[in-house]
Amino acid sequence: MSQNRPEKDDPALDAKKTISLPISRVRLIMKSSPDVSSINQDALFLTTKATELFVQHLALSSFNNGCGKESNSLSYSDLAKTAEETETFHFLTDILPKKILARDYLKSLEQMQEEDADL
Amino acid sequence: MAEKPEDLNLPNAVITRIIKEALPDGVNVSKEARRAISQAASVFVLYATSCANNFALKAKRKTLNAADVLAAMEEMEFERFLEPLRAALEVYKKGQKGKKEVSEQKRKEKEKKADCEHEKSKEDEEGEDEEEQRMEEEAEEGEDEVEN
Question: Does B50 reach chain A within 8 Å, measured CB to CB?
Answer without folding.
Answer: yes
